[in-house]
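job 3f2a | input accepted
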Amino acid sequence: MSAEAELSTLELTWHGRIYHGPRRTIDVVVAGAPAGTLVYHVVLADGSAPEVVAGAAPERPDATLEQVWVDAVAQASGALAPVVAFMRGQTKTKGATRPVYELLRLLG
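job 3f2a | predicted structure (108 res):
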């Protein structure tokens, strides 16, 4: 699966969910993807659905999430709740926690 297809799959996870709050940027690093480490960032902007963009954020992100491919796929398929992965330590974070909580809330 190409990186573009992987991003499209992940983007569908929060289709139709709208963020309300200050602008936030979160880098996401997924290790062990079929094409190697997958890096993308999510932009949360008031009144919009989260925007997924390939590559790291051009400016310093508010937070960074790190996880392995198997967990990312399980979350995208609904087999693993993002909040559960976070609470179990399967999703590691760096930086501010508020943007992470906001993203997890949108992911359900």
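job 3f2a | The chain has a mean pLDDT of 86.
job 3f2a | closed
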